[in-house]
Specification:
two-stranded antiparallel sheet
Amino acid sequence: MTNSNVTNSNVTNSNVTVPNVTNPNVTTPNMTTHVITRAALQDDALSRMMAASAPHLRLLTDAERAASLAATLARRPDTGQGVWLFAYGSLIWNPAIHYDERRLARVHGWHRSFCLLTHAGRGTLDNPGLMLGLDRGGACTGAAFRVPELLVEEELALLWRREMLSGSYEPRWVGVRGADGAAFGHAIAFTIHRVGENYAGGLAREDVVRRLASACGALGSSADYLFRTRDGLRSLGICDKGIEDLARRVECACAPSTADPPIPI
C-alpha cells in the first residue's frame, strides 16, 4: 500500500501478520517466535509470560495500566470519530486489535529508534535485546489505525496490556499527516520513556547490531523483530534507510561463516 487514501475497512480480525521474507540463509539466534495474539492479550497471557521469564522485571499492575489509559483518554484532542493509533514497529505487522481503517501516516518531532533495552521478550538479563521506540527529533513514517468509537475502551485496554507492561513507553497524542502532507487528526503514539532504566538511546551502531544479532527471549529474537519490522514497512511501500541498513548488517552478522577452518600446523 503506497497511497495514504487506501484503507482497510470493516476489519474484524487483525491477527494476520506480514510474512517474514528474510534471507533463508540467515540463522537468527532463536528461530522460535511467539506472535502476540488477541487471545493472549485478552487473558493477560503476555504479562504472565513476561513475569515467568523475567521475575526481576517490575510490571505495571492492572490498576496502574488503567490509570495510564484513563489519563491518556482525558487528554484526547479529537472526540466522536474513533481513535487513531500510530504504529511504527511491531504494531505494523501484528496489530492484534480491531480497527476499521488503516492509512500511511507521518509524525514530526519523533523518529523510529532501537532505543529500548529488553530483558525478557526479545532478550535476557545476561544479554538484553533491543526494541523500537519513538525518540525525540526528526520524523517517522508508519501506519495509522483507527479504532471505531464503540470499541475504543475495549481495544485500548488490550493495547495497554501489550505496550504498557513495564512503563517503558509514554503514551501521548501526536499530530499525524498523510502521504500528501495533509493533517488528518491526532493519534496515540508510544514514545520512549527517556528517564526510564531501559532507555538505550545513543548506543554505538556496532553495539546495536551486536545486540540485535545475538539476543533472544520469550517472544523470539531481536533479529526476527527487526526483520519483521523491515518487511512490514516494505509491505506499506515505506523504505526506512536506517532499518534497511541495520537489517543488512544483522543479516551479515547472523549468516553462517563460509570460511575454511584453520589448518593445524
